[in-house]
Amino acid sequence: MALIEVKNVKYAYNFNEQDTIIAVNDVSFSIEEGEFVALVGHNGSGKSTLAKMLNGLIVPMSGDVLIDGMNTRDDDLLYDIRRQLGVVFQNPDNQMVATIIEDDIAFGPENLGLEPQEIEKRVDWALNAVGMQQYRKGMPFRLSGGQKQRIAIAGVLAIAPRVLVLDESTSMLDPKGRAEVLDIIKQLRAEQKLTVVLITHYMDEATEADRIIVLNKGKIAYEGGKEIFLREDELKSYGLDVPVHIHIANTLRKSGMDIKNIWTQKELEDEICRLL
Ligand code: ADP
Ligand code: MG
Which domain holds residue 182? Predict the structure, then answer.
């Protein structure tokens, strides 16, 4: 069985009133341990609703979500589910609980009932992972939006989940900061068998993933490999842009340059270096 199983889930807001918004409509997919999946879709396509269903913050109206075989409908399993799958949401302000940064990061491990020494170790490690060690004694409200996002990521990392779900968690970072967080993710995946679900509307980031799931109007419009990034018109029909570096490669190729198919920014850089 896959680590994440989403089976025919449906979720609607205001479903007792006349204006029903079906946010997620009969969505199914599964994710194996160790995979790096990008979940992309334009605003309002249902990404965050799906993210909330993954850790049982909301339960589907119909269908099921299973994390390592545990159904999110079962309240008794929620603790174990959230230990395995951590979600970092878009707005870090809603995720800060303590007045001192290191206490905020310790909150998750404390709730797991870990020994103080182990908690200290994890806080230390998580702060290093996101490059925020020097701020540990500081107060969260003094931080910039991007720094808060790093702390929110550290807070989830400290729980040492098997799955990390990032719901637009780098939206407040500048391109350099986003690249740094992506590097952290890659490093964690190399060191551990971390499974990553990256929810993003930055198509450049999505090209780093092994598999792409496109949501459009609450439904899965595409699930598969990176070849979707070559289909400019199809992406546009989902309200998505072509990743900039793939567009550059396509344009150079059209102008007669002998450029191979590239997916990541790094691959484009290497390809240009090769040609020069
Ligand atoms: P995304 O994260 O892809 O932008 P969301 O899951 O946030 O999409 O939203 C999907 C749809 O559900 C949108 O039409 C949005 O307006 C609606 N929606 C999201 N949250 C709520 C809510 N709390 N109440 C009512 N409608 C909501
Ligand atoms: Mg969202």
Answer: 4-229
* Same domain assignment for residues 197 and 126: yes
Q: Is 236 within a domain?
A: no
Instruction: Choose which residue among 49, 89, 168, 169 to substitute to test ligand 1 binding: the one with the highest number of ligand atoms within 8 A of its C-beta.
Output: 49
Residues 110 and 202 in one domain: yes
Together in a domain, 188 and 87: yes
Query: In this structure, what CATH number is given to the domain that contains residue 189?
Result: 3.40.50.300
Ligand 1 atom 26, closest CA: 13
- Both 107 and 186 in a single domain? yes
Do 122 and 253 belong to one domain? no
Domain count across the chain: 2
Show the ligand 1 pocket: residues with CB < 6 angstroms.
13, 21, 23, 41, 43-49
Both tokens of residue 2?
């896959």
**What are the mean pLDDT values of the chain's consecutive 10-residue runs (276 residues total)?**
96 80 96 96 96 96 97 96 93 79 93 93 92 92 87 93 93 83 86 92 89 97 94 93 89 88 88 88
Domain assignment present for residue 38? The answer is yes
Residues 6+ apart with CB under 8 A from 91: none
Residue nearest atom 16 of ligand 1, based on CA coordinates: 44
* Pocket probe mutation, ligand 1, options 9, 11, 13, max atoms within 8 Å of Cβ: 13
Ligand 2 centroid to 275 CA: how many Å? 40
Q: Are residues 37 and 103 in the same domain?
A: yes
Give residues with Cβ within 8 angstroms of 249, minimum separation 6.
259, 261, 262, 268, 271
Distance CA 259, CA 261 (A): 7
